[in-house]
Specification:
Strand order of the largest sheet: 1-2-3-4-5-6-7-8
Number of helices: 12
Strand content: 15-25%
Structural class: alpha/beta
Radius of gyration: 19 Å
Helix content: 40-55%
Shape: globular
Largest sheet: 8 strands, parallel, barrel
Distance between the termini: 13 Å
């Protein structure tokens, strides 16, 4: 994984006037949304606006994504066919409510036949999708990350969206992503006015192994980005660990009175890589 996935900011496809403005907030990815943010009567016009924008010149320095409707639905099929038939070039496509690796391999085949290099990001939003998460993460090399949608998941199991209720789902998604060496992207924080709550949940997700978080408002981006950048203290300690390990030529070493073995050195190198990317 070489790309930054700290923040992915949604913008409704019905608001093309906000597409470029979303990039000003400096998320790693701007995602034009054809799914939840668009009502049934506006799907067609929103699709046209999104593909038109993604076919032209746009702000650099951010990744551009398109969230389609699930391909098992009529609107999702229309999204896929329209994308393939257009000249639009999103960097990645977010696929909501994925429940099997087959769906992703099917999309991969369509993209390959159309000569597209577009990546895929499946979003887990159901118990069935959660159980298939490891297979989905490895479905195709086109899968660059795997996301978590907690609202539908919580509604299905009858829970709230608190940390305790989502622990199992988060852990399974983070493990699936880690095993496939792709990024894990955490669910949205719905109260965009609650920065303290956003920071606390983002720190929780980072601690569980996530690489980024979905955002629904530009004001959330700075906080999310900051949490996913290793602190100066963390970088300094990682540098000491790596230097000590390299000087010892392998094996267990001591850093500040703590015994350090290979897994800790690997984690330290990961911290330094994350800091360098950021």
């Amino acid at each position: 994984m070489t790309r930054l996935w700290r923040s992915l900011l949604f913008v409704p496809a019905t608001r093309p006037d906000r597409f470029e403005k979303a990039a000003v907030a400096a998320p790693d990815t701007v995602c034009i949304d054809l799914e939840d943010a668009v009502g049934p009567d506006d799907k067609s016009s929103a699709r046209t606006a999104a593909l038109e924008f993604l076919s032209g010149a746009r702000a650099e320095g951010v990744r551009w994504a398109l969230r389609i409707n699930n391909p098992r639905t009529i609107n999702g099929l229309r999204d896929v066919l329209a994308l393939i038939d257009s000249t639009a070039t999103p960097d990645v496509v977010l696929v909501p409510k994925v429940e099997s690796a087959h769906e992703l391999r099917w999309l991969d085949g369509l993209m390959a036949a159309a000569g597209r290099a577009t990546g895929l990001v499946p979003v887990v939003e159901s118990t069935r999708g959660l159980e298939c998460a490891p297979d989905m993460a490895r479905a195709t090399t086109r899968v660059e990350a795997i996301g978590f949608g907690s609202a539908d998941y919580s509604a299905e199991i009858g829970s709230d969206m608190g940390a305790a209720a989502l622990t199992y789902a988060r852990g399974r998604i983070a493990a699936a992503a880690g095993g496939a060496r792709i990024a894990a992207i955490d669910t949205v924080w719905l109260d965009f006015r609650d920065d303290d709550g956003l920071r606390a949940e983002t720190e929780l997700a980072r601690g569980m192994g996530f690489d980024g978080k979905l955002a629904i408002h530009p004001s959330q981006v700075a906080t999310i980005n900051a949490v996913f950048v290793p602190s100066a203290r963390a970088v300094e300690r990682a540098e000491k660990i790596v230097a000590a390990a390299e000087a010892a030529g392998g094996g267990v070493v001591s850093v500040d009175g703590e015994m350090i073995d290979e897994p800790v050195v690997i984690a330290a190198r990961r911290t330094l890589a994350a800091a360098q990317r950021a």
